[in-house]
Every structure is written in structure tokens, then in C-alpha cells.
Amino acid sequence: MIKTKKRGDLIIISGTTCAGKGTVIKKLLERHNDIVLSISYTSRAKRDYETNGVEYYFVTREEFERKIRDGELLEYNEYAGNYYGTPRKEVVEKLETGKDVVLEIEVNGAKMIKERYPETVLIFIMAPSMEEVKRRIKMRGAENNEQILARFKTAYNEINQVNNYNYVVVNDDVEEAVKKVESILVSEKLRVDRIEEIFVENQEEIIHEFLIEKEFVNEERDI
């Protein structure tokens, strides 16, 4: 009786440093073949262990700026002297096939897309506490105190922008966090504004059959 829109959902997943958003997204993609991850463009140099088209699409700074001018990006941002951005055409094509598209981007990019596409689902992943963030950073053992402090400042700034998101998921257990994200996506599919049409096939025939059936039941009672 209900026909829903076939277009997929655009989903943004952001989170503070060491919140585990990458792990949550990875498990989500492993469990659902109708959810895909959008690969971003970047102007930074490719690292030895990276593959073009897997971690990022690596382009020159000039090529990235051309894409900005030509409107080929849903959003973009510059961080540490390098550009990062989401390809418009690729995302739109995947949405039109009915697949949900996940973007793993930071809060400024999320805000930019939400302003242009209000139907976007925004999910923010948080660590249980800043103490836990500190513990996870130290476990990496790859950053000095100055770098850790910079990450903390960024994390606090991002947390202050949580009100721009639709949902917040605290990742104190990865499996539970993934389940919560899955629940959010199911709920979004059930939204009334996703309904394209409500219909009843052969409405007159159904009513007629109902009346005949009701009359037949009444006759049996009389007998």
C-alpha cells in the first residue's frame, strides 16, 4: 500500500579524534552491500602504502582548484595546506541507484553539505570521554605533546558543533555503536517524507468483496 522513494540516503559520519568512526564505518560496509563509501579527492601527495581510488583520488592542486571552479565537488576543505573534497557526480549516481552513500568528513564539510542538501543524515561519533581520547592517542605513540594538544583543541571545537547533527552515537563498544548506527538508518527509511505514494489497488473491488463476505457471514448466522 506504500510506495517509498527509491533514491538512497546521503549519510555523513563525523567524529572527534580517536572516536573510532573509521572502524564503525568499516563494519557497517561489511554488513550492508547497499551502503557504499564515497572516496574523496585530495591534493596531498600519495603515501607509499596508499592506492589511488582506494583511500583517496589523488590529484594536483591545480586540478583540484579546477574542480572547485567547475562545481564538481559537493564540499571541500583545506587542511594543513592540502585540499580535500567530495565528488558530486559519483555520489549522485550512486544515490540514484538506490544505494546509501556514506561520507566520512569533518564538521565544516558536513555543515556545507547540510545547507545545500537538508535531507542529509548527519551522525556524530564520540568517544566515551576526553580521558579515553587521551588514552587512545597515547596508545598510538606517534605524536608529541604539542600534536596531542592540537588534536584536543580540534576535538573540543568539533564537540561544540554537535548540535548541527541529527544523531550522536557514543562509541564505548564498537559492536553496540554499529548497531545504533544501523538503527538510525532503518528509522530514516521509515520517515513519512520518504513516502512517494499511498495507494490501494482495486479499491472498489475490495470494498465490494468485503460487503459480499459480510453479507454471507450474516446469512450463516441466521441459519
Summarize the SSE layout with pairings:
Blueprint: E1 2-4, E2 10-15, H1 21-31, E3 35-37, E4 41-42, E5 57-58, H2 61-69, E6 73-79, E7 82-87, H3 88-96, E8 100-103, H4 107-116, E9 121-126, H5 130-140, H6 145-159, E10 167-170, H7 174-189, E11 195-198, H8 203-222
Parallel strand pairs: 2-8, 2-9, 3-8, 4-5, 9-10
Antiparallel strand pairs: 1-11, 4-7, 6-7
Write up this protein:
A hairpin with a 2-residue loop joins strand 6 and strand 7. The chain is of the alpha/beta class. The model has no long low-confidence stretch (mean pLDDT 85). The chain is 45% helix and 21% strand. The strands form 3 sheets. Strands 3-8-2-9-10 form a 5-stranded parallel beta sheet, sandwiched between helices. It has a 4-stranded mixed beta sheet with strand order 5-4-7-6. It is globular, with a radius of gyration of 24 Å.
Compact summary:
This protein is α/β, with parallel strands linked by helices.
Assembly of the depicted chains: single chain
Total beta-strand segments: 11
Kindly estimate the percentage of residues that lie in beta strands according to DSSP: 15-25%
Identify low-pLDDT runs.
none
Mean pLDDT across residues: 85
Supply the key terms.
11 strands, 5-stranded parallel β-sheet, alpha/beta
